[in-house]
Every structure is written in structure tokens, then in C-alpha cells.
Automatic annotation (TrEMBL):
Native source organism of the sequence: Punica granatum (Pomegranate)
Name recorded for this polypeptide: cinnamyl-alcohol dehydrogenase
SMART domains for the chain: PKS_ER
Gene3D superfamilies (alphabetical): Medium-chain alcohol dehydrogenases, catalytic domain, NAD(P)-binding Rossmann-like Domain
EC number: 1.1.1.195
Protein purpose: Involved in lignin biosynthesis. Catalyzes the final step specific for the production of lignin monomers. Catalyzes the NADPH-dependent reduction of coniferaldehyde, 5-hydroxyconiferaldehyde, sinapaldehyde, 4-coumaraldehyde and caffeyl aldehyde to their respective alcohols.
Length: 328
């Protein structure tokens, strides 16, 4: 007989979960594993709300596994480390993004691109290697292998830094990997919501220039269905359109402008763990944080409705430390 979420592991945990495709979140008791020899356990203080959380809790992409505790923009303070941990100590500020496991042996992992590992384990709504469900950061504690945790510099506020663990790396990674981080290039950002406004901040810090005419680079952060032809036409010859948003339906791709302009349309999904730490350090050096609205835990369903309506141009961040309270 399968164990309940409360009995699956030895350590009691508490969070908010969705139970069905309505996406409504409510208090939820479950459990975490004990701290292993390579593990870091931390008290969650803040967790950002990503648009993918909304898609997942409503099963809009399919594959939802309920009950589901979302959240992959997780920041907190270390409370316990395993005896083989070398990167962290008790009291350190720590973050966890979208990935908490990978095979560590494939070609992608060898290049520190765990985000493209065929055996990648997501922070929530998937199964870990033992077959138990992974639960995200809308919760009081997290346990993860130290390889999948990043150190947060002291000058970065935990609330404003939380969205960097998804929104930040999602826009930083393509700028680096497609050679777009060279000062003087002209960049356009489509969509100035949770992803787009962070993309603008990183682009400015890298010395990229905004442009009114044709551009070298476009970062497309839009998750709604939209036309690509006007964006492709804005690109200079051999320009690049990088897709980081996730529309629910396929988009029409115009081929002729790509052929005759040598233009490239590519996708990018988050980043590997080495790059994630590099991005956090870059943000620290350039004082980059996300524009946020900090909310209490019991406001999360209203926040999701606002997100669904497009009634936000920044990132919601849940104050877990002060507002996540066990059910009476």
C-alpha cells in the first residue's frame, strides 16, 4: 500500500498544495527526507511565483501529479548539512531553482547543462530517484543535494533575488550561450512582465543597447500565442530570435525571412547549475534584483488569478518565513 505524503519520509513538512486542475491552493501536510551525507536542509524564507506554476497547478501542460506543491524560486537559510557537504554551512543563504536532480553522466551534464539532461528531476511535480514525489518551495523546509543549490551573496536581498532562480537564469543563459553578451550589440525584449523586465536589467549590465530599428538580438519572453513574423522582420541579417516564453499552442514560423536573411530562431530553457551560480554572482556584482510584490501565503490564489489575467508586470514573491502558518 502506498504511503501518504505525510508518511513518505521521516521529517514533517508543511506547505500549500493544489489537489486538482482547478489549481486552488490550500494548506497541506507532507514530509521531507532526512539530511543525507551530500544534502543541504534549509528553512524556506521566500519563494517566487513563476508563470509555469500557474500552468502546472491547472494541468495546462498535462502531466500534473496531485497533490502538487509548486515553487522553484526558493531562497532560505541553511539549518543542517550532511557530513560530505563542502559548499555550505549552517546559517548560509541558499537558493534552489527548477532542478534538483540529473544523471551527472550524460553529455549535457558533462557540460554543466543539467537543464537538458534526459533524466533531469524537477523541483516539483515529478518523481525522485526513489520514486517519491518532489514538492516545491511553497513550503516551510527544503532538502536537496548540495550540487543543486546555489550560494546567495550577502548583498542580495532574499525576496528580490528569489525570481532570479528562474526568471533570471532563463534570460541570462541565452544571452551568454548565443554570444549575445558583447557590449554594443542591439537588443530587443518582447514582453516586459516577470521575465522581460529582468532581461532588460541583465542586457544593460552586459553593455547591450536598446534599439528602435533593426536589432541583433530579440529575447521573446511572451507566453501568450503571438505572431513571430513581425519579430523576425526586425532582425538584422544573421540576427537571432531567442524564445524563452512558453505559449500553450504552436506558433507559426515564417521560413522565407529566415532563409534569405540567415536569421536564427532558437529556444532556451533555464540553465545549468554552474551557469546558475554564475548568474547569481553577476547579479550581485551589478545589483540586479527582480521587481517584486511580496505577498502573504494566504494571498496566493488571488495572485494566481491576477497572473492569469496579466494583471502584473513584475514577480510575486511569497513571504514564507512570516506568513506560512500550519493549519489550526
Amino acid at each position: 500500500m502506498a504511503k501518504s505524503p505525510e508518511q513518505e519520509h521521516p521529517v514533517k513538512a508543511f506547505g500549500w498544495a493544489a489537489r486538482d486542475s482547478s489549481g486552488h491552493l490550500s494548506p497541506f501536510d507532507f514530509s521531507r527526507r532526512t539530511t543525507g551525507e551530500n544534502d543541504v536542509t534549509f528553512k524556506v524564507q521566500y519563494c517566487g511565483i513563476c508563470h509555469s506554476d500557474l500552468h502546472n497547478i491547472r494541468n495546462e501542460w498535462g502531466g500534473a501529479d496531485y497533490p502538487m506543491v509548486p515553487g522553484h524560486e526558493i531562497l532560505g537559510v541553511v539549518t543542517e548539512v550532511g557530513n560530505k557537504v563542502t559548499k555550505f554551512k549552517v546559517g548560509d543563504k541558499v537558493g534552489v531553482g527548477a532542478i534538483i536532480g540529473a544523471c551527472r553522466s550524460c553529455e549535457s551534464c558533462a557540460q554543466s547543462l543539467e537543464n537538458y539532461c534526459p533524466s533531469m528531476i524537477l523541483t516539483y511535480n515529478t518523481k525522485d530517484r526513489e520514486g517519491s514525489t518532489t514538492y516545491g518551495g511553497y513550503s516551510d523546509i527544503m532538502v536537496t543535494d548540495e550540487h543543486y543549490a546555489v550560494a546567495i551573496p550577502d548583498n542580495l536581498p532574499l525576496d528580490g533575488a528569489a525570481p532570479l532562480l528562474c526568471a533570471g537564469i532563463t534570460v541570462y543563459s541565452p544571452l551568454k550561450n548565443y554570444g549575445l553578451d558583447r557590449p554594443g550589440l542591439h537588443v530587443g525584449v518582447v514582453g516586459l512582465g516577470g521575465l522581460g523586465h529582468v532581461a532588460v536589467k541583465f542586457a544593460k549590465a552586459m553593455g547591450l543597447k536598446s534599439a528602435m530599428g533593426t536589432v541583433d538580438i530579440i529575447i521573446d519572453t511572451v507566453s501568450a500565442v503571438h505572431a513571430l513574423l513581425p519579430l523576425v522582420e526586425l532582425l538584422r541579417s544573421r540576427g537571432k530570435l531567442i524564445m524563452v516564453g512558453a505559449p500553450q499552442r504552436p506558433l507559426e514560423l515564417p521560413i522565407m525571412p529566415l532563409l534569405f536573411g540567415g536569421k536564427i530562431v532558437a529556444g532556451s530553457c533555464a540553465g545549468g547549475l554552474t551557469e546558475l551560480q554564475e548568474m547569481i554572482n553577476f547579479a550581485s556584482e551589478h545589483n540586479i534584483t527582480s521587481d517584486i510584490e511580496v505577498i502573504p501565503m494566504d494571498y496566493v490564489n488571488t495572485a494566481m488569478e491576477r497572473l492569469a489575467k496579466g494583471d502584473v508586470r513584475y514577480r510575486f514573491v511569497i513571504d514564507i518565513k512570516n506568513t506560512l502558518k500550519p493549519a489550526a
